[in-house]
Amino acid sequence: MNRELAEAARDLAAYLRSLDENLAEPPAGVKRTPAVAVPAVPEPAAGRPAPAAEAPKTMTLSPADMDQLAEKVKACRKCGLGHARLNAVFGVGSYKAKVVFVGEGPGFQEDHQGEPFVGRSGQLLDKILETVLGLKRSDVYIANIVKCHPMKNPESPESHGNDRPPTPEEISACRPYLDEQLRAIKPLCIVTLGSVATKVLLGTDKGISTVRGKVYDYPVELFGPGHPIKVIPTYHPAALLRNPNLKRDTWEDMKMLKAILDKGE
Ligand code: URA
């Protein structure tokens, strides 16, 4: 093994160990526990991205590293969501995808099936992929800002209507996992679905209707200078289900994505 490779492997091992240190077992004999205290992390300042995990830049991860990361997410108890969930929802799709779609967090269906966007929103997302982009869900990668279902009542994972947005602490606890996924996939483009994913990944406090319609650079340098990832914010499919008038703008956003994918750079 050459020196650079050995150093990269050491950095990766140290980084994965630092994630390990955050995995705490739930108290003995207790199935579901109240939220574990997570040190308060300040909200990202407007215009700044939420702090991402410190990991060596320019390093891409292999699919085997990604599988290892998925196992860590399944065992994660960094915040209370890890104790209440039925399944961690790591992500789905191709590790070679040119585009990664990022939603807010798993809902009831996703918690039950362990896969992102499998409910009504997911069916609409599949339709958008197919009709506008000519892609299947297995051609892209789909993930969420938080990997576990944020519930109003964590004691009731079997109840419908129990969804809530993730808190800033939950988002900060989960954020390193998404950047590791992006580091492994090295996509050309990220599509943020809805206000929560857009605010977190672009570090903005503006809502989706203000921000969408343009292409941005991902403000976290995952691969060093000269390798920006493009970000296209668009409406969450759930918003389109509530208000079909938003479909036209979403189609425009997807056409911008298609142009980037067709150009391939
Ligand atoms: N909404 C999201 O934001 N993510 C999912 O996985 C499902 C619904």
Task: Describe the model.
The chain has 265 residues and is α/β, with parallel strands linked by helices. The protein has a single domain (3-20, 72-264), classed as Uracil-DNA glycosylase-like domain (Uracil-DNA Glycosylase, subunit E). It is built from ten helices and six strands. The protein has helices spanning 3-20, 63-75, 81-84, 108-113, 120-133, 168-185, 195-202, 208-211, 237-242, 247-263, and strands at residues 92-93, 99-103, 141-144, 189-193, 216-217, 230-234. The chain has a six-stranded mixed beta sheet, with helices on both faces. It is globular. Mean pLDDT is 84; it is low at 11-51 and 53-57. It binds uracil.
Topology of this protein?
Blueprint: H1 3-20, H2 63-75, H3 81-84, E1 92-93, E2 99-103, H4 108-113, H5 120-133, E3 141-144, H6 168-185, E4 189-193, H7 195-202, H8 208-211, E5 216-217, E6 230-234, H9 237-242, H10 247-263
Parallel strand pairs: 2-3, 2-4, 4-6
Antiparallel strand pairs: 1-3, 5-6
Bound molecules: uracil.
Task: Name a few traits of the molecule.
10 helices; binds uracil; Uracil-DNA Glycosylase, subunit E; alpha/beta; single chain; 265 residues
Query: Would you give the CATH topology?
Result: Uracil-DNA Glycosylase, subunit E
CATH homology superfamily:
Uracil-DNA glycosylase-like domain
Mean pLDDT: 84
Q: Count every helix, treating DSSP H or I runs of 4 or more residues as helices.
A: 10
Number of domains: 1
Number of beta strands: 6
CATH architecture: 3-Layer(aba) Sandwich
- Anisotropy-based shape: globular
Share of helical residues:
40-55%
- N-to-C SSE string, H for helix and E for strand: HHHEEHHEHEHHEEHH
Tell me the distance between the termini.
31 Å
Classify the beta-strand content into a percent band. Answer: 5-15%
Report the sheet with the most strands, covering strand number, pairing sense and barrel closure: 6 strands, mixed
User: Which structural class do you get from the secondary structure elements?
Assistant: alpha/beta
CATH class: Alpha Beta
Low-confidence stretches: 11-51, 53-57
Q: Are any ligands bound, and if so which?
A: uracil
> What topology, given as strand order, has the largest sheet?
1-3-2-4-6-5
